[in-house]
User: What shape does this take?
Amino acid sequence: QLVESGGGMVQPGGSLRLSCAASGFTFRRYDMSWVRQAPAKGPEWVSTVNTGGGSTYYADSVKGRFTISRDNAKNTLYLQMNSLKPEDTALYYCARGSRVPPRYYWGQGTQVTVSS
Assistant: This one.
């Protein structure tokens, strides 16, 4: 099970930190990703971190603004989002696996709204 938290409404240029609590599987054995979906759009891969946390990958749209990390001792995935833009508005999902895993492996999502 994956449970996201930390979403909310923020002004452009603001920051949010998303968290994802994992349970029911061996968290440290899986790459983990963040995927987002804006209204009326398909899923968009945001970022992936490898099992140990030492390798991270980002979509060009968020590179330099977002930071993915994980704490394997706490079975938790994070996404630090800085310099947020209105186009970052979406439902953000934590997902088990790389890139855009099958939907079965996603959490329920947390809403991020960037608006003035």
Remarks:
- The beta strands are 2-5, 8-10, 16-22, 32-37, 44-49, 56-58, 66-71, 76-81, 90-96, 110-114.
- The mean pLDDT is 97.
